[in-house]
Amino acid sequence: MLQVHIDSAGYQQKEPYLQNIHFTICPGEIVGLIGANGAGKSTTIKSIIGTMEHVHGNIELEKDKQLAYIPEEPILYDRLTLWEHLRLAATSYEMPQTIWEPRAKDLLKKFSLTGKEHELPIHFSKGMRQKTLICLSFMTEADIYIIDEPFIGLDPIATKHLINLLYQEKERGAALLMSTHVLDSAEKLCDRFILLNEGNTIFQGDLLELQKETNQSAGTSLLDCFYELLEEGVS
Ligand SMILES: Nc1ncnc2c1ncn2[C@@H]1O[C@H](COP(=O)(O)OP(=O)(O)OP(=O)(O)O)[C@@H](O)[C@H]1O
């Protein structure tokens, strides 16, 4: 569904930060992009969605596939109401009203935004703005979702609904790439992990492979394996 070949990328042409990030995401797969602060997760995501200026490599999205992106910082239009945001997203994805309206209403209910349709999201709390973006993205039923830190700022009920939605979209055959620091959720949700450190890939694979790579017993958590890999420098 998505092939990522980043030879190098960075904020300045002469000083690339990312080096040799290569991975593929298949339909029906949830892949976790994991790394410490500053490891390069957001830079990788920005390189994929095309908002980084200096990228050397090749990003290939399967023909005619729709991509939805949920950024870490919710950015919304100042003068559009919640409902107008939903209508705008539906229009740009050319979705018929009979399809998008019931989906939108269902998502608003799940994320406790029913009744706020005619309010301006710029006046919402950060978590509510994050939920608005989640509703906008999942309403489109995209083929691939790229989600930067989906759990930060969400209350426990919204987190639960988001986890269910991610599973639901995976079941539908969507591919999902998500960066996160919430490793217990990542461990449950993700089929595979890409671990980054200082702009480089230090591991790719599933939890079993990571346990083997770090010489840990079966049952060791993603957090403990990740810690081992970074702190003990297992290679
Ligand atoms: N707008 C920017 N301009 C210049 N350098 C940046 C910019 N944003 C990030 N960087 C640098 O790029 C490197 C990777 O940052 P990135 O935001 O990709 O990390 P991250 O893994 O997403 O971290 P976090 O978990 O803290 O969000 C860091 O050294 C950071 O200082």
From TrEMBL:
Every ABC transporter domain range: 1-223
Entry keyword set: ATP-binding, Nucleotide-binding, Transport
One Pfam family of this chain: ABC_tran
SMART domains: AAA (SM00382)
Molecular function via GO: ATP binding; ATP hydrolysis activity
Membrane-spanning parts: none
Protein name as catalogued: ABC-type transporter ATP-binding protein EcsA
Organism: Oceanobacillus oncorhynchi
Taxonomic lineage of the native organism: Bacteria, Bacillati, Bacillota, Bacilli, Bacillales
